[in-house]
Amino acid sequence: MSGTPVQTPRSGRPPRGEPILERAFRVLGAFAEAGEGLTLHTLAARAGLPKSTTSRIAAQLTGVGALERRDNGDFVVGLQLLEIASLAPRGHGLRAAALPFMEDLHRVTGQHILLAVRDGDEAVLVERLSARDSAAVKYRIGGRLPLTGTGIGIALLAHAPERVREEALADANDAALLRRLMAAVRTEGVCAMTVPNPLRSGPTTMSTVAAPILDRHGDALGALSLVTPDEGGTRAAAARTALRTAGLAISRAVGR
């Protein structure tokens, strides 16, 4: 849910015949940050729907607990969505198998440990462990990340269907680099790279090492990643074996 406004006809009306369920998901998709509260006006603008339509849908979503309304009138995501989302097998089952290994990595490194699955041409973060004093990063559970430009995304992309890989390569700013990183994932079991920190505070660059979690057919069930301040990449480089080993162990745990 990126919060990016949806393109609508010049009339401001939703496409004719658009199902109510799709409109409801457009309203839910307007939220971009955890705990974010939106006014009706902002909710309508982000969803690309008329204010009256948004008001009606938001009231229905509030009635079933998918949204909640604060005392000031702002809408927030409701707990009912969290309860339902926690049942998703691709996230929940993988998370349960991965968590002990993530906790070990987190205890040793004191840095961000991420777990993600692929959804189409994006990665969805299903778990994150972070220490209080670790550098701030713009990753949240349930948030979406590009498959290109992030270590965890490239670890997923390297074992994605050929069509997904080719589409990513066609859109990549540096297709040659992306090919090399994907090849490293398939041959070495990890992707190591330095990425810009999108936050203004903290280090300007971060290092990341990511390893895929594969099923017995070699397809990616998910991916595991360490994200740490760059420091010349030394800390991330030292974690390559640990990430690769954890990825293999989680693969075996999921298989059992």
Automatic annotation (TrEMBL):
Keywords on record: DNA-binding, Transcription, Transcription regulation
Protein's name in the database: DNA-binding IclR family transcriptional regulator
GO MF annotation terms: DNA binding; DNA-binding transcription factor activity
Domain HTH iclR-type positions: 18-79
Keyword Transcription: yes
Pfam families per UniProt: HTH_IclR, IclR_C
SMART domains attached to this UniProt entry: HTH_ICLR
Organism expressing this protein natively: Streptomyces griseoloalbus
Ranges that cross the membrane: none
Any GO BP annotation: negative regulation of DNA-templated transcription
Domain IclR-ED: 80-256
Gene3D superfamilies for this protein: 3.30.450.40, Winged helix-like DNA-binding domain superfamily/Winged helix DNA-binding domain
The organism's place on the tree of life at top rank: Bacteria
Coiled-coil stretches: none
InterPro entries: GAF-like_dom_sf, HTH_MetabolicPath_Reg, Tscrpt_reg_IclR_C, Tscrpt_reg_IclR_N, WH-like_DNA-bd_sf, WH_DNA-bd_sf
